[in-house]
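Quick start: what a row looks like.
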Amino acid sequence: MLFSILLVLASGVAHAVWSMFTKRSLNKGVFLWSIMMIPSVILLPVLIAELWRNPLTWSGYGLLLLSVALQALYSWLLSKTYELGDLSQIYPIMRGTSTLLIPIIGVLFLKESLSAYGWIGIMCMLGGFFLLSGLGGKRNETQPHGLKPFALALCVGLCTTSYVFVDKLNLENLSPLALSEATNIGFVLGLTPLVLASRQLRQEWRKNRSTILLGAVLNPGSYLLFLFAMQQAPMAHISPLREIGTVFATFLGILILKEQQGLKRIATSIVVFCGILLVGMLG
């Protein structure tokens, strides 16, 4: 279990770092496409070889295609979210949404129950999301897009929730490495129309070659670490720990990207993370 925890923590930190690189890029969609195209090409023989040796059933292929489709939608939503919102604003929302929604759906529709700690965690996340959304405040130069980044971040979180559940099922048929490649392909497909329309691929590589290459390791690597962890421990136990990245990403946004409302957003991200832990561990 300790090894799984270390894998998940490393996954969360890696995710926060490549997210910061994306926010610093010229064109978010082109940057994301670039960092995912590299591992997609490298790992393609792994996926082909595994499917050739162990072909899936029709339902297995359908589940794999669903994962690819969810990744395509996720990548498009992600690029739009990074275009409009500050990293320290959108990241805690994107990462905390799934932990917030799953228990609420369970209580409302599946006749499940939450402990007192779980309800405290829900309140922490709702309060944190309210503060990060900017609701009740005035639109200013630091938040020119109003509620759009908040709404997009919620959609990204919902999409993340969906593909994690689907990929947990896919791990019954595929190795983590092969499944990671399938999700890479979906990610690239979702951004390809945007890249073709932008005509900024060469410009992005000239400006951010080093961070693209590093992001090409951190982006798929972060999810691959999580997939390995899911093979060794229950998803409900380890998923909340991955969201330590919410605090780390907020610090990166404030300290490196010089985003506004520093103390408020750092404190809020810690509150959201504590809420995630309460729901995930004790809820």
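That is the whole record. Residues 2-282 form one domain. The CA atoms of residues 13 and 175 lie 23 Å apart.
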